[in-house]
Amino acid sequence: MIYLDSAATTFQKPPSVAAAMQDALLTMSSPGRGGYPAAMKAAETAFQCRSELAELFGVGNPERVIFTSNATHGLNIAIKSLVPPGGKAVVSGYEHNAVTRPLTALGAEVSVAEAPLFRQSEVAAAFDRLVVPGTDAVICNHISNVFGFIQPVEAIAAMCRERGVPFIIDASQSAGVLPLNLDRLGAAFIAMPGHKGLYGPQGTGVLLCGENVPVRTLLEGGTGSLSMQQEMPDFLPDRLEAGTHNMPGIAGLLAGVRFVKQREMANILNHERRLTLLAAEGLRTFSGAKVFAMPGLREQAGVLSFVPLKKDVEEVGNRLAEQGIAVRTGLHCAPVAHKSAGTLDTGTIRVSFSDLNTRSEVYRLLAVLHDLLH
Question: What was the pLDDT predicted at 67?
Fold first, then answer.
């Protein structure tokens, strides 16, 4: 199989990830639940993973690195910590349902910073108009999961700092690809999956918490600490990590983080961009496709969407699957993004790359699409 759906999950993992998970299954129990070797090894692995994530993403204290089950879990914690029922939020025009559905459930008043695709300056200007006193939170994804559009989170963060409004960053597509520094940005929260650009297993995620930011629990239960107390501990990470930890997942995530550090984010981004540019240039030679890519990919990462002009996106996606090529079709859980780009009625075919894809895979994709779109 040629796997080109890494915006959903990096199905292909470094061998070290599976090895670390198997070792955890054989040697680790639960951290904080005992002083015997299996519990101590689990505690050491969890701490090491927190520490390396803190170093990678500019978090001054590893205790502010929270393990979650995915980015959606982290975003729910972040949003519900800051936005009260009926509160006010400002979001970008390229958000995922992991942001918009929690806000809808809260009955929040949501303002959308609408801007054309691949126009960072217009995105920033739209936020500038909407972020006003009384805003409970500003939420923006770093990279659009549909179009690979890199949004100006640094400019939005500066705006939020100046106006005293909490900022939540959805780093689902950027963690492991673009640099992020929580404390320097002054963001309240950054949520990310472990199973995409960090090359960890499914069922892992991370929430980075700003210093002295109030947090609300989604779950209550055992933490291995303050067991006599019936309220959740008021300190991190225990306050947000009720129940047994996913130690095979955390061990695998640690191995994935080390892979990213060894390869270096800039090298991973450049590799993904080269493949994306190759695919975009090839698709543009076809008369039967509309391609969403900007020249030189200046404001775009390793995600590419296109729309067949004469065929249904689902039909083309299924035909690709029959040829052993895995892509994503439809609305990608992000109707707001499709509305912004004018593809809400059709959806798109999304091709998304990881560091483990190759040029030969892109050439094979283009060869099959040449036959399908003509």
Answer: 98
